[in-house]
Amino acid sequence: MKSKKGNLMFLTQDNKMKWKLLAYATAVVAVIVALGVMWFDAPVYLAMRGLNCKLWGVFDTIFDAKMWVGASFVLMCAFYGKKTLESKPCFKNDKNRFSIMCFWSDFLLKTKNSYAFFTFCSVLSASIIAQILKVVIGRARPIFYEALGMTGFFPFHNDWAFNSMPSGHAVASFAGLVMLGMLAPRIKPFTWSLAILIGVSRVAIGAHWPTDVILGAFIGMVMADLVKWWLKRRSI
Known about the structure:
This protein is mostly helical and about 240 residues long. The chain has a domain at about 40-80 and about 115-235: Up-down Bundle (Vanadium-containing Chloroperoxidase, domain 1), CATH 1.20.144. It has nine helices and no strands. It has helices spanning about 20-50, 55-60, 65-85, 100-110, 115-135, 140-150, 170-185, 190-205, 210-235. The chain starts with 18 loop residues before the first helix and ends with a helix. Residues about 1-5 have low confidence and may be disordered.
């Protein structure tokens, strides 16, 4: 989905959202997910179980949504908090009652254009949406297919066993890695390859159905575009 200006997906290089394309893509993904639930989820899942390896377990830990949010926030604080403290004159005056306010305003100014800030906003917003959808959709995880032969939906179940769709790891990884790829185009092939590999791993370890990952990846990609578009519109 390349525009003539060279950007990917739904956001042009001059920061304009392609809303019509986004609507079409959403409809296509919805159809693919619906067909997958009915026809190819179970066969693909059963075929991929043999791909399980120790590497997938590493992905499971490192690329969890909480790790993404936590790591990006720590990076913001580490790289920019120290600069703020050292550069702001008001911190050298103990009598300045506005020193705390001064710190936070300058800290935000220094972080708002950083990769960590954009990634933090992308992953956090996408993960919140994903968690809401998990509860609303209430899809049973693959373990129930092996034990009971069922792939059912039980809406509004706030329980891990019924929070399969969408894949939280896929959402967080695509939201974070796609954002990094947009901010640093030279590493885009690496970020996309890693995001896809993480998605595959979620099916291989038996945590998700293929359509859980497809939907999660789409949500992550869309949120990366929307967050970048929204922040840039506000000159952040």
